[in-house]
Amino acid sequence: MAATAGNIGSRSGIWKDGSTTRVALGSCTPVTGRPARDPLAAAAAYRIDGSELWKSGDVTGAVARWRCALSAAEDVRGRVPESVLDSLQQPLHANLAQGLLRLERFSDAREEALEALRLQPTCTKARYRLAEAHAGLGAWVEASEALAELEVCGHTAAAACGRTLLRRRQREAKEAEKTLALRMLGCDSAPSLTPPSRKEDNVRIAASDDLALVHDEGAKNLEAMD
Questions:
Q1: What is the pLDDT of residues 59-78, one digit of tens each?
Q2: Cα separation of 152 and 44, whole Å?
Q3: Cβ pair 42, 8 in contact under 8 A
Q4: What three-state secondary structure class fits 75?
Q5: HEC profile for 44-73?
Q6: Within 10 Å of residue 199's Cβ, how many Cβ atoms?
Q7: Which of 36, 39, 51, 143 is the Cys-Cys partner for 75 at CB 3.0 to 4.6 Å?
Q8: Is the pTM higher than 0.85?
Q9: What gap in Å lies between CA 213 and CA 118, rounded to an integer?
Q10: Those residues with Cβ within 8 angstroms of residue 216's Cβ, 6 or more apart along the chain or in another chain
Q11: What is the rounded CA–CA span in Å between residue 191 and residue 171?
Q12: Phi-psi region for residue 141, left (φ > 0), alpha (ψ -120 to 50) or beta?
């Protein structure tokens, strides 16, 4: 089907609904071989759909959508200014880092956070997520260094939030090691992981770059990165 003002193409699953570009949730084929405007519109639409899927709790679907957005943007590399691609891809990499953290794919999350920081070294959320990824991999020194860099950049609240979660993860890792050791010794019972405190549960980083970073029950907000 040829692309028209109302239908960008059935192959990509993208169409126009009034002034809004929409993406069929059942399709995830990057746009290829089309004018530069189509892949960029597709990338923007994939990003929006990913954020909607995230909000609905579909983390896997959101990650897939954000990857589609990156693929669509790559289709026009060399045909549009690099700055245009960087501004589109940077928040996608940051979002992917968060999604992959939720899926406990810490190594992949680390790579996405590093790429987001390469494109925008001052991105607070990307650096925070890098610290989380290091912590998930048990790289405590690297996690602490990432949080220290946040503090140097003036984001003391985010750094404090990260240290709180880092201490909790270290405690959980130690408890897990004790549990494993007891089981290897043949003990029938083993101590459970120390549950996080209510305050720690209320400390979180906003999911998407379309949302705000929340610290200490919402008392501290940092500007969201788009």
A1: 999 999 999 999 999 888 88
A2: 33
A3: yes
A4: coil
A5: HHHHHHHHHHHHCCCHHHHHHHHHHHHHHH
A6: 10
A7: 39
A8: no
A9: 20
A10: 157, 161, 199, 202, 203
A11: 13
A12: alpha
